[in-house]
Amino acid sequence: MKKRAVAASVSTLLALSTGLAVASPAGAATKQVINLITWVNPPAVTVLKKINAEFEKANPGYTVNYQTTADVSGGYATMQQTAVQGGTADIMGTFPFQPLPFNMSQNNLTPTQLWAVHNVFAPLNGQPWVKNFNPSVLSGDMYKGKLYGLVTGVYQQGVFYNKAIFAKYHLVPPKTYNGLIHTAQVLAAHHVTPFFDGLQNVGPLYLMFITNPLMQDIWMPKVGNVNTALWTNKTKWTDPAFIKVMVRERAIMKYLEPNFTGVPWQAMPGAFANGKAAMLLDGSWDLASVAQANPHMKMGYFPLPGSNNPKLNQSLLQPDLTFVVLNNSPHKAAALKWLDFFASPKIYAQYVDATGISPSRVGGAYSSAASRALGPWFGKGVMLDRIFPQLPGSGSYYVQPKNWWQLQLEMYQGKYTPQKVASMYQSAWQQVVK
Amino acid sequence: MASLYRGRDRVQLYIGMLPGLLLYVLFGVVPSVATAVISVTNYSGIPGLPVNFIGLQNYVQAFVLDSTGIVGAIRDTLVFAVSVTVVQNVAALGMAHLFTRRYPGRAVFRSLVFMPAALGVTVIGLTWALILNPSGGPAASLLALWGGSSAFLGSNRFALPLVIFVQIWASLGFTTIVYLAGMNTVPGELYEAAKIDGASSWVIFRRITFPMIAPSTTVNVLLAAVGSLNTYDLIYVLTDGLYHTNTLGMYMFNTAFEGSSNLGLAATINMVEFAITLAVALTLQKVLRKREEVL
Hints:
The complex is a heterodimer.
Chain A: H1 2-23, H2 26-30, E1 32-39, H3 42-58, E2 62-69, H4 74-86, E3 91-94, H5 111-117, H6 135-138, E4 142-143, E5 146-147, E6 150-151, E7 153-162, H7 163-168, H8 177-189, E8 195-196, H9 208-223, H10 226-231, H11 240-253, H12 268-273, E9 279-283, H13 287-293, E10 299-302, E11 316-319, E12 322-325, H14 332-342, H15 345-355, E13 358-359, H16 369-374, E14 382-383, H17 401-412, H18 418-433
Parallel strand pairs in A: 1-2, 1-3, 8-9, 11-14
Antiparallel strand pairs in A: 3-12, 4-5, 6-12, 7-9, 7-10, 7-11, 7-13
Chain B: H1 7-38, H2 57-65, H3 68-99, H4 106-114, H5 121-131, H6 138-144, H7 159-184, H8 188-196, H9 201-212, H10 214-229, H11 233-238, H12 248-259, H13 263-294
Helix pairs in contact in B: 2-13, 3-7, 3-10, 3-12, 4-7, 7-10, 10-13, 12-13
């Protein structure tokens, strides 16, 4: 009896498995799946979905499985770690990994840097699209002569302003630090919130829209490449120029919207588009969302002036989404095919126009909301990696990225003076550079 | 005491236990031992990269070379765990006591209190993040009626209390149900005798109800303490460990995934978390079991 029952069960299982095998469409076996992962930047996600659909249409044998996480921190970091260890992605979105620290160790390399120097990414040298892209932008993803990523472009950091509000109070885009403070004072006197910035979810990191330009305009003229100068001990965090940066940073932060530390970054474009503040401190990646939230709004751009010498006040460029192909990808050829498709002129133009990114591809005509708002500044400025050093992922506590920015916030909140913060950074930094 | 199972019965018993035991070893014991091993290595999670034994270097890094992070994380963890355990249990006791009485709408109230237990952590986190949005969220509007304002989850002062509140809100239903089940097992004669003796409601609760539900207290206190010592998911959704909410779980997660690929150091932080949890759990178990033995 028992034997019969066992035999019946085995037969059923066999029949089921055979049935399933027969039921599988023959075409599915030949269809190549490309797994693509990125974090969510709404306009980028929308246009990438469209591009994927066009890729599938142009290449019937391929399917793109596109997955995202809510933001670039936590969840995406976990997704990346899984992809690297488990081979669950073929193409992975990252940020360019340069500049690398001068003395590389596991403690002071970010995960992306660690992966780059340990051959986790497939070299892309010789791919047909490479010659069409700006080498200086691609250099952000090069190590020992090997190119590891397609840098999709650079975003502009700075101040986006509501032209209608500026006109109402007879204001013009300021070109000096004193002019900026005067502008903020005029707006505040009329009960208009001068600046909008949201720190929730991303944390104090978004103070970078104030700190970075101040560092560029005040510290860089004195020491040149700040990143290199810090690594080579040519300058210190206790440099009076950096203390001046923090003093001015604190002065500007007084004009941010109330309770900005609790405002989610996702709320920034909508709030600015709806007139909750006259100026938005942000990157140009959010301009597409601003335009979507209020298509009739007229906005302009100016680099946040950190010094009182207009010639020193430059716009900041931040390389953004970069596609890398994982070395353990089971579909490497398909992934390279997708990259080639993405880099083709018409497809890439769609991406640039939808996201507002300044193109890394040489030539071409673009008409994004960002290009109109940025005007002559579009794609022009100083690369961020010359100003702000890559902070170590672990080890010295106060110079780890999250803690570095947290101290900036605590300085503003009065817990520490700029001088104290500078000395805390310097003592932590000494452990990193020794 | 002689064993109830002998010979073939005993073999069948062990065979029956085997699948569960294997699962426990595979998903419980192996990862735990692996974490302990990883904590003395420089494991980075990069395929093909050699993993080296580095002794106690990660522990030295965490406690000697740069103790700011771990000291802060231990402080935040203890504040979080003690607050959650105490307030959650006191509130749940009160709720359960209320639910033993009969009044109109009792079933609705019970459902409302238990409802968060059916929601996922992400849903709870996002819901409260929206409620506590200082730019137009309902909590901000409410506070504005009294002329106040706050950054809520972005405030160094209020972020941790708010995270504690949300954690308690999320777990209160389950804790209440456990207490309620305990209260329903207390023999009615004890209450009747106390009432005849003229005992007040407070005396009845203190002298009869609370001692008689000792097993429920043990379960609830242990679950709340161990759970809150290991919490990171809710904090991750609400504050990402910022604004003094960087508990050990959060610190470990950030070290492993966000800032670096230093999985060895992350495993070290996990071992510290494990040691604290073990010490707290064993102490609580000893103390609470003594109360049960009196029954």
